[in-house]
Amino acid sequence: MDFWPRGPTLRQAMERAEAKAHVILDGTLLPIGRIAGARPFYSGKHKKHGMNAQVLADPFGRLLWASAALPGAVHASWPPVPTASSTPWPP
């Protein structure tokens, strides 16, 4: 048994979102302290070190899905994990 609960996959969240009028997909940089070898964590856009996260929410702001945190240097359009833009819809 995992100590930390796991949320739904993006596909599961999109299935729940299908009945909604619209959903909100947004991303943000979560600032972190500078660490040794931090080049992958440096965001040139924000000029700081951090981790990128993307979230999918319903029209009321309730969280439907959150991505894994990625190094800040990874551009949001590069999808190493399934994102709404990289997942074909409908399935």
Would you give an account of this structure?
This protein has 91 residues and is mostly beta strands. The chain has a domain at 10-71. It contains 1 helix and 5 strands. Strands 1, 2, 3, 4 and 5 form a 5-stranded antiparallel sheet that branches. The radius of gyration is 15 Å and the shape is elongated. It starts with 9 loop residues before the first helix and ends in a 20-residue tail after the last strand.
**Largest sheet properties:** 5 strands, antiparallel
Tally of strands:
5
Helix proportion range = under 10%
Strand portion: 25-35%
Which consecutive residue ranges, at least 5 long each, have pLDDT under 50? 83-91
User: Averaging pLDDT over every residue, what do you get?
Assistant: 73
Overall, the morphology is elongated
Terminal-residue CA separation:
30 Å
Query: What is the SS-derived class?
Result: mainly beta
Strand/helix succession: HEEEEE
How is this structure best summarized?
The protein is mainly beta and 91 residues long.
